[in-house]
Specification:
CATH class: Alpha Beta
Number of helices: 4
Shape: globular
CATH architecture: 3-Layer(aba) Sandwich
Helix content: 25-40%
Radius of gyration: 14 Å
Strand content: 15-25%
Order of helices and strands: EHHEHEEEHE
Number of strands: 6
């Protein structure tokens, strides 16, 4: 059984219940198709700690990410909401720079990272 965690954007969590992320997880669709018929367990679902927060300046965020590695979680999916609209070109999306830092930290701890959940 593969243990999965989903991290979503704190700002978006103020207006999103995460239903589409959970639906994709439960039905093994979109970004969860990669697991085929493998049994999955949702081990954690959490938000980031907000824009500008990194493991270097936020002990709480560091504790959360360390806990994922210690459990251990096999794969962390960064929710689709962690891709932000470009201010110059709203049709284009780009990766959140704070998510990139979390990704690098998790990978340094041996945790696989996937971008996306439901689109």
């Amino acid at each position: 059984m593969k243990k999965i965690a989903i991290i979503r954007c704190l700002d978006v969590s103020m207006r999103c219940v995460g239903a589409s992320c959970m639906k994709s997880f439960n039905t093994h669709t979109v970004k969860f198709e990669r697991y085929g018929n493998e049994e999955l367990e949702l081990s954690a679902s959490l938000t980031c700690n907000g824009c500008g927060q990194t493991v270097e300046n936020d002990e709480g965020l560091k504790k959360k990410l360390d806990r994922l590695a210690e459990e251990p979680v096999d794969v962390v999916h960064f929710s689709s909401c962690t891709n932000k609209k470009d201010k110059e070109n709203p049709e284009m999306k780009k990766r959140c720079p704070w998510v990139e830092k979390m990704k690098d930290y998790l990978e340094s701890k041996g945790v696989e990272v996937v971008y996306g959940t439901h689109h």
